[in-house]
Design goal:
The chain is α+β, with helices and mostly antiparallel strands and about 190 residues long. The protein has one domain. It is about 35% helix and about 25% strand. The protein contains three helices and five strands. Strands 1, 2, 3, 4 and 5 form a five-stranded antiparallel beta sheet that branches. It holds the Pfam family PilX_N.
Length: about 190
């Protein structure tokens, strides 16, 4: 009789061990699945932020937009605002300061248009994509552009922040780029 009781206790210990191993495997699998989903959503938000930066350059090089006196490209619009001071100011994706905002939507980019309508970048993951552009300063051009030194051309320095957000998530992924373009020297 004692042997049967001992076998039963041993069987219960084996079942308990197997249950603990099973629960641990399921918990680990769920955690890994959540991490993979988070990484995928972060990747989608980063792609949206990169697309927003590309949108600024698209508009800034759009000849039909540049020739239309009723419209303004994002770099020219930012140039008309007060200069941004990177040492004392922050440029947040949520800031409502005087930045030049552009949006990437499902409609994509089209020639001759200012992309100022807020909308969804991707509906599959309900992703938003927008950029903020600020003028930093005007300076003498450096590097290989010194060939034009002494002329009435300077480099205009901008900061462009691309922002991406997946719907239902509280975090925003941002990427920033400093751009220097040739422009007329201020008098």
């Amino acid at each position: 009789m004692k042997q049967r009781g001992l076998v039963m206790v041993f069987a219960l210990l084996v079942l308990l061990s197997l249950t603990i191993l099973g629960v641990s495997a399921v918990t680990s699998s769920l955690s890994q699945s959540k991490m993979a989903m988070s990484m995928q959503q972060t990747g989608l938000a980063f792609d949206a932020a990169e697309a927003a930066i590309a949108g600024v350059f698209f508009e800034s090089e759009d000849e039909s937009l540049l020739q239309d006196s009723t419209k303004v490209d994002p770099l020219s619009a930012a140039r008309q605002l007060d200069p941004y001071e990177p040492e004392t100011e922050t440029m947040s994706c949520f800031d409502e300061n005087e930045w030049t905002d552009r949006y990437m939507t499902e409609g994509g980019l089209s020639w001759g248009n200012e992309h100022t309508t807020n909308g969804t970048y991707q509906t599959m993951a309900s992703t938003k994509s927008w950029s903020r552009t600020a003028f930093i300063r005007e300076q003498a051009c450096r590097g290989s552009s010194n060939v034009i030194g002494g002329s009435n051309v300077n480099c205009h320095v901008f900061i462009i922040r691309g922002c991406g957000k997946v719907g239902g998530k509280s975090t925003v992924v941002a990427n920033s780029l400093a751009a220097s373009v040739f422009g007329p020297a201020s008098q």
